[in-house]
Amino acid sequence: MAVRQVLKQGHMLLKEKCSEVDRVDSSVELVIEDLRDTLTLFQKERKGDFAISAPQIGYPFRIIYYQDPLRSFVLINPKIIWKSDDMVETTEICCTCNSGNKKGVKRHKLIRVEYCDEHGNEFIEKFINELAFTLQHKMEHLNGKI
Ligand SMILES: [Zn+2]
Predict the structure, then answer these.
(1) CA 107 to ligand 1 center in whole angstroms
(2) Ligand 1 center to residue 99 CA distance, Å?
């Protein structure tokens, strides 16, 4: 169990495209544990921060951890396979990018995402509104775009 330091926007490691995860081994499990611990701490301090990506705590892998009061899950190698034309303007909260920086971002209202969980199960899931916006933001972190 470890809470990691969250990198701030502009950090070198956040500008790299993250690698795909080939298989979930103990080192990947460790990354997931650190993501959970770090996000949980942030959520105690600030509301509205629902997800964190591995590069935000310095691991260059395509892993996102999501947690809200109703559900928590891990997305490994997430890929958007469909998105709605419908765009929504949103304000995003992220522990790397201060909320003030991300005002007025336009995101797809609906996305369909292909991903694996920590047990290697594959999913195709549709996400809408806030959850969709959050995942679009975190996937940009995986691509080194924020
Ligand atoms: Zn961010």
Answers:
(1) 14
(2) 9
Q: What value, to the nearest 5°, has the Cα angle with vertex 56 and ends 115 and 82?
A: 30
* Residue 102 in this model has a pLDDT that exceeds 90: no
Q: How far is Cα 19 from Cα 84, in angstroms, rounded to an integer?
A: 26
pLDDT band (50, 70, 90) for residue 52 = very high
- Overall average pLDDT of the 54-68 stretch: 97
Q: Hey, where are the domains in the chain?
A: 12-142
* Distance from Cα 65 to the centre of ligand 1, integer Å: 13
pLDDT at residue 103 is higher than 70: no
Per-residue HEC secondary structure of 129-143 comes to HHHHHHHHHHHHHHC
Is domain 12-142 annotated with CATH 3.90.45.10? yes
Residue 24, pLDDT above cutoff 90: yes
Q: State the distance from the centre of ligand 1 to the C-alpha of 146, rounded, in angstroms.
A: 6
- CA 95 – ligand 1 centroid, Å: 7
Ligand 1 mean position, distance from CA 49 (Å): 10
